[in-house]
Task: inverse folding
């Protein structure tokens, strides 16, 4: 079976995906030569087209979801956070990276649209999914801020700091705010997962998704505890955040990638 979706049956999604990927690519390629308003305009246009792709996917029959759509939603949420924050902090500069990531996930979600979703076992199940995707988005935003923080710290060590750049302490504070918010939502996600598992299966199911998610939750808990009690910051904190984000990525996206792409199972 071909990996590429049928153009005849998915023409709206294909068209929107192609346009979103094209705008992301133009932004990534030409943004150094654009003015500030032009860069923001292209980013807003890419954000809007990306949202259109996600909305069209919701109305497809049968409804599909998988590792690539999950990554696409996460990237869109991170871009949403960036667009809001860039109004408050014009010094933030991560457009090229976000444009490349956005282009990659839009194309990936078109090539791997996921598997048809079964009938809901509970009307509250979408709440569990929404909490999980939101936690992905917030932790993804924390990773972006940590990367910006590392870049700012490196520039300071090399004597290349720019007075117009984002202050390092502000980036650090924002990073841990997103970590704390992501940790809270991930906690709610795990509690909801435990509730549905006990209600529907009468036992807690320890699969790959649950194991990696719990490990990510524990890592973030240790990171926040170390920050609060011991003042952790810098490389130690950033590496722990990257570890927690990597474990969370393996939890759903990684396990679904293995099932969908490597094992060809739903």
Result:
């Amino acid at each position: 079976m071909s990996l590429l979706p049928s153009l005849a049956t998915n023409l709206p999604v294909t068209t929107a995906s192609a346009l979103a990927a094209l705008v992301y690519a133009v932004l990534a390629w030409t943004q150094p030569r654009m003015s500030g308003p032009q860069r923001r305009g292209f980013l807003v246009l890419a954000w809007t087209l990306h949202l259109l792709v996600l909305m069209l996917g919701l109305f497809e029959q049968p409804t599909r979801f998988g590792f690539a759509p999950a990554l696409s939603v996460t990237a869109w949420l991170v871009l949403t956070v960036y667009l809001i924050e860039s109004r408050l902090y014009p010094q933030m500069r991560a457009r090229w990276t976000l444009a490349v990531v956005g282009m990659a996930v839009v194309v990936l979600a078109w090539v791997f649209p996921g598997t048809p979703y079964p009938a809901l076992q509970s009307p509250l199940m979408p709440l569990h999914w929404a909490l999980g995707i939101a936690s992905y988005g917030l932790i993804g935003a924390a990773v972006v801020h940590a990367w910006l923080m590392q870049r700012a710290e490196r520039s300071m060590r090399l004597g290349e700091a720019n007075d117009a750049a984002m202050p390092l302490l502000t980036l650090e504070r924002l990073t841990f705010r997103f970590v704390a918010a992501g940790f809270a939502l991930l906690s709610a996600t795990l509690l909801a997962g435990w509730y549905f598992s006990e209600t529907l299966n009468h036992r807690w199911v320890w699969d790959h998704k649950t194991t990696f998610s719990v490990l990510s939750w524990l890592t973030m808990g240790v990171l926040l505890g170390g920050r609060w009690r011991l003042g952790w910051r810098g490389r130690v904190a950033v590496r722990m955040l990257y570890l927690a984000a990597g474990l969370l990525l393996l939890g759903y996206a990684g396990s679904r990638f293995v099932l969908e792409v490597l094992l060809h199972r739903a």
Summary: The chain has one domain: 11-115+126-262. The helical segments are 11-30, 36-58, 67-88, 95-111, 125-157, 168-201, 208-230, 234-262. The mean pLDDT is 85. Strands lie at 64-65, 115-116.
